[in-house]
From TrEMBL:
Protein name: Protein phosphatase 1 regulatory subunit 7
Stretches the record annotates as Disordered: 31-66
Organism field: Nothobranchius furzeri
Record's keyword terms, sorted: Leucine-rich repeat, Nucleus, Repeat
Gene: ppp1r7
Domain of life of the source: Eukaryota
Domain (U2A'/phosphoprotein 32 family A C-terminal) ranges: 310-328
Family: Belongs to the SDS22 family.
UniProt cross-references to InterPro entries, sorted A to Z: Cilia_flagella_integrity (IPR050576), Leu-rich_rpt (IPR001611), Leu-rich_rpt_typical-subtyp (IPR003591), LRR_dom_sf (IPR032675), U2A'_phosphoprotein32A_C (IPR003603)
Length: 334
């Protein structure tokens, strides 16, 4: 048995709809329109129908929301969207592999040391201020900490099995303390206060890097990320496309909503499939020559650049980049 705050909110969340339906039914049963019990049981011919249950038999048993039983062998536990403030009473779940605490009121990562088999932990949309107490979770592969109040990246360096780290929508200013994450494949840092791309050299297996909506002004520090396939840098203050010489495996490059005036330094990205450059200051059609070596390019976003004012906007893109199948949000019709 498990009791306390977690068990209470589990019962509340899982049975709220049942209680609400029961309450509405009782209200209707007691209304003047529904009549008394004997009237409700009468058939069309006016006789009492013996098969119709009485009011007493229709009443549902009260819901016990104080306790709930959890199987110690359970591998997945979801406690999403409750009112949990404290992580507790999970010590017996030593076989647990996935724990979902999304959208609660948790202020501290704690009482997780017994969950040594845990591979996925989601504590997004809570009120955490720091990352802590994950020392025993050495099997962790996915860690979601989206939309908290975390100010620094810390206490994750020992998670050598971690493949995905989501720290978007926090208060992070510096990329740091990631050197031990040799297995990391995806890193999400969007909507923070980061001013510089740095301290990423050890992430040799990183394939997805998202750092949208920060304060980046220069593309740099990516030279060791030779396996990078997707790079998301939209909504920053970047003025020049540069620093991608070693990122030859890129299939998606997103530099939308920056201050770029020229498409340059990407002719070597022959694997590009998606190129997002909308909401910049591109005004020269010859810039598209930088994309001609990308024979698999299918999607190009260039809307809200000076180029779009050209009445032949779509036609010129199609002629310059014949492999493209989507221009902005619209597919090309053949």
């Amino acid at each position: 048995m498990i009791s306390g705050r977690i068990s209470y909110v589990l019962g509340l969340k899982n049975n709220r709809e049942q209680v609400l339906v029961w309450s509405i039914r009782k209200l209707c049963d007691n209304s003047e329109e529904s009549g008394d019990d004997e009237t409700r049981r009468k058939g069309i011919n006016g006789d009492v129908d013996p098969n119709q249950p009485t009011a007493a038999s229709k009443e549902e048993s009260p819901v016990d929301m104080d306790t709930i039983t959890l199987d110690p062998e359970e591998e997945t536990l979801s406690l999403r969207q409750n009112l949990i403030k404290t992580i507790e009473n999970l010590q017996s779940l030593s076989s647990l592999r996935e724990l979902d605490l999304y959208d609660n009121q948790i202020r501290k990562l704690e009482n997780l040391s017994n969950l040594r088999e845990l591979e996925l932990l989601d504590v997004s949309f809570n009120v955490l201020r720091k990352v802590e107490n994950l020392e025993e979770l050495t099997q962790l592969k996915k860690l979601f900490l989206l939309h908290n109040k975390i100010g620094t990246i810390s206490n994750v360096d020992h998670l050598s099995s971690l493949e995905m780290l989501e720290l978007g929508s926090n208060r992070i200013r510096v990329i740091e303390n990631l050197d031990g994450l040799s297995s990391l494949q995806s890193l999400f840092l969007g909507t923070n206060k980061i001013t510089k791309l740095q301290n990423l050299d050890s992430l040799h297996n990183l394939s997805v890097l998202s750092i949208q909506s920060n304060r980046i002004t220069k593309i740099e520090g990516l030279q060791n990320l030779v396996n990078l396939k997707e790079l998301y840098l939209s909504h920053n203050g970047i003025e020049v496309i540069e620093g991608l010489e070693n990122n030859k495996k890129l299939t998606t490059l997103d530099i939308a909503a920056n201050r770029v005036k020229k498409i340059e330094n990407i002719s070597h990205l022959t694997d590009l499939q998606e190129f997002w450059m909308n909401d910049n200051q591109i005004d020269n059609w010859s810039d598209l020559d930088e994309l001609k070596n990308a024979k698999s390019l299918e999607t190009v976003y260039l809307e809200r650049n000076p180029l779009q004012k050209d009445p032949q906007y779509r036609r010129k893109i199609m002629l310059a980049l014949p492999s493209v199948r989507q221009i902005d949000a619209t597919f090309i019709r053949f």
